[in-house]
Each structure stands twice: as structure tokens, then as C-alpha cells.
Amino acid sequence: MQKKYLLAPGPTPVPPEALLAMAMPIIHHRAPDFVPVLEAAKKGLQWLYQTKNDVLILCSTGTGGMVGAVNNFLNPGDEVIVVNGGKFGERWTKICQAYGVKVEEIVVEWGYAVKPETVEAALKKNPKVKAVFIQANETSTGVYHDIKAVASVVKKTEALFVVDAISALVAHDIRTDEWGIDIMIGGSQKGVMLPPGLAFVSVSDKAWKMGESSKMPKFYFNFKKERENLAKNQTNFTSAVTLIIGLNECVKMLQAEGLDKVFARHERLAKATRAGAAAIGLKLFPKESPSNALTAIEAPAGVDGQAIYKDLRVKYGITGAGGQDKLKGKIFRIAHLGYADTFDVITALAGIEMVLKGLGHPVKLGSGVAAAQEILMK
Ligand code: PLP
User: What pLDDT was estimated at residue 103?
Assistant: First the structure.
């Protein structure tokens, strides 16, 4: 037998409280029993998003929410700005182009965060821009873009500010209303601690207004219809009843902890992971602004990053993630997201030390663990 540890940046472990709640017999999504369930989910998400806006609940992965954020608000030929600092930034461009939207990309070198001045300059150069798309966490590089600073420049324009917070929600304090985020997308299988299958999308009044003139085709992701149904504590199509029941359980756990403490926990785990990696003699991939949800670590010279990822999983049962695209083999990633605590970090670092030693890389066993312990005990 080998015990498994899921330390990937999604899907993440699901707490037993939610697993148990989701094991209850199914209820019907149009029957009165479901009304309080959806009402609680709606309120819980508004709390988590720090918003008074509607937060739609879609039965899809996060990418479905991203698609809906494009085809419900824009028209073919519209001009938008996409911040592209990795694989998920690239996805915004691909979705926009699939719907005939003209994309001006701000290409950010992988490992760096976008500079708000660059977004400001791009908006000044093209005042016709209808929306600015960005990731909060660029999960492929482990970088967090400064959403507050970028929001403050977009807010001065007519453009919508659209944030993919799929891997950042819960790990970072992102203030939807206070900062002026028009559309923010979340996903169930990350910080929210649920299995894959739900996307969440908050929509501001400014965005609903722009959406009124959107002529793009929409059927499954029809946000206006979702909004009308949400007002009646329903969803447009069959609700993902089980996942929504689980969502209420997870939000209850986060509420019992308190939002500030949730963010502080993620910050503490991230700091300990970074310090542990440094003590092992490893370099972080982000050159600035590392995420609190995951840590992207460079494979040392002469060691294949995919071998580290694979040995962690196969020899020790620890599933992290490798590098994507041009980072494949160069980095590996460890998440500390959602249902994560002190000994997840210790497990990850101990595993990394053992794997590196096993691959012939000189490592002082316990060095990373000790550095992390110092932080985790504070
Ligand atoms: N955006 C970011 C930042 C992500 O981390 C992910 C998933 O890893 C996605 C989008 C895609 O989400 P999904 O696979 O749920 O469609």
C-alpha cells in the first residue's frame, strides 16, 4: 500500500466534511428542498468573492466560466487587451479569437508579473478597448499579478476588468467590489476544496450593461438566463446538486476560520515552502510576486524536472505538477491550496529532498524541512 498525497494546483484534496455531505442521497434541483441549498451557495460565494454582485454558478470547469466571460459581453470585432504571462493568459487570447474578438496582447516574460503602467499605456493607446483580461495567479509560472494595482488603472476607463481567479480564489485576498473587478471567474477544484465541475462568475452592473448589446451566439453559457434563474434560487439547466451541497460545506469551513485567517494560512504555507526550497538550494521560478497558492521551483542543473515530478508521485505517492509547455522538464510545482496545512508543506519538502538525493543531486536531508519548520512554528 502507498498513501497518496494530492499537492497539485488543482484538483486539490476535498475535506471529509464535504465528502460526507456529498454522499447524501440526491435531491431534485427544481424541488423546494433545493431552494435553501442554492440560496446558501449564492450567499456563501458573495462572501468569498467579497462582493454584492451576482455570482453565477455554472456546471462546467473553470474554462467554461472564461468562455462565458467573453461571449456574454462582447461583439465580434471588439478590441480587448489580454495580459499573457503564461499558459492561462494564452487561453484568454485563444477564447477571444475563437469569438472573433481582436486581441492586443501584453506579453509578459514567464516568471514575471505585469506592470500596471504597461496596462495603463496600452489602454491610453487604444481607448476603444472593451475589456482587459488577466489571471490573478498565472498557475503555469506560479506568479501572482497585482490585481489591485491593475484594477486601479482599468477602473478609470470604460473597459471591463475580467479576472481569472480560478487558482487564486481563497489563496489571495481579492476584493471584487472594493477594487472594481467587473467579472471574476473561480473554479471548484482549487481553493474552494471541491471536486472539479463548477465554475463561478461574478458580474458587476457595468458588465451587465455592456452585455445588453452583446450579439455573440450564446446558448449553454447564457449569463442573462443564469441571472434570472439565480434570482429564483435555481440554475438555467440541471444544477450540479451534489457539488453545490459540497460547496456549502466548504464555505462553512472557511467561514468558521475567517477570511483573514484563510489568506494568512495560505501566505504562511507559501512562505514556508519557498524558504524550504531555498534551504535545499533550489531556485524559485517566479522572479517576482510568487503566488500563495502554489510554488513553482526550478529543477537544478542536470536534473530533469519531469523526473522530480514523477519520482515524487511514483516513489512517494505525492502528486504535484510538472512544468507546462516550454517549462516542461525545467520546473516542478507544489500547491498549498485549499484544504492544506502545515504538514502538507513538510511532506512536500521532505519528498523533494528524498527525490533529489535519489536522483543523485547533493542534498542535506532535512535542510528544507527545518527551514520550513522555523516559519511554520511562528
Ligand atoms: N485558469 C487558471 C489560472 C487555472 O489554474 C486553470 C486550471 O488549472 C484554468 C484556468 C482552467 O481551469 P479548468 O481546467 O477548470 O477549466
Answer: 98
Of 87, 166, 183, best ligand 1 pocket probe by most atoms within 8 Å of the beta carbon? 166
61 lines ligand 1 (CB under 6 A): yes
Q: Which amino acid is at 133?
A: F
What are the sequence ranges of the domains in the chain?
16-256, 258-376
Which are the contacts of 297, defined by CB distance < 8 A and separation ≥ 6?
A: 277, 282, 283, 284, 285, 331, 332, 333, 334, 352
Instruction: Residue 218: name the closest of 206, 230, 243, 236 by CA.
Output: 236
CATH number of 258-376: 3.90.1150.10
Distance 376 CA to ligand 1 centre (A): 29
Q: What is the pLDDT of residue 228?
A: 98
Q: Which three cell numbers stand for residue 153?
A: 488603472
What digits encode the pLDDT tens for the residues 315-343? 999 999 999 999 999 999 999 999 999 99
Atom of ligand 1 nearest to the CA of 88: 1
State CA 148 to chain mean position distance.
16
Rounded Cα–Cα distance for residues 69 and 95 (Å): 10
Q: Among the CATH numbers 3.40.50.1970, 3.50.50.60, 3.40.190.10, 3.40.640.10, which is that of 16-256?
A: 3.40.640.10
Measure 294 CA to ligand 1 centroid, in angstroms: 13
Mean pLDDT of all residues in 260-272:
98
pLDDT at position 236: 97
Pocket test for ligand 1, best of 61, 66, 167, 243 (most atoms within 8 A of CB): 167
Summarize pLDDT for 302-317 with one digit per residue, the tens: 999 999 999 999 999 9
- Whether ligand 1 lies within 6 angstroms of the CB of 167 is answered as yes
Structure confidence at residue 202 as a pLDDT band (50, 70, 90) = very high
> What pLDDT does residue 260 have?
98
Looking at ligand 1, which atom is closest to the CA of residue 199?
15
Dist. CA 133 → ligand 1 center (Å):
14
CB-based contact 248:193 (threshold 8 Å): no
C-alpha 174 to ligand 1 mean position (Å): 17
217: cis peptide before it, omega within 30°?
no
- pLDDT for the residue numbered 330: 98
Q: Which atom of ligand 1 approaches the CA of 168 most closely?
A: 3
User: Mean pLDDT for the chain?
Assistant: 98
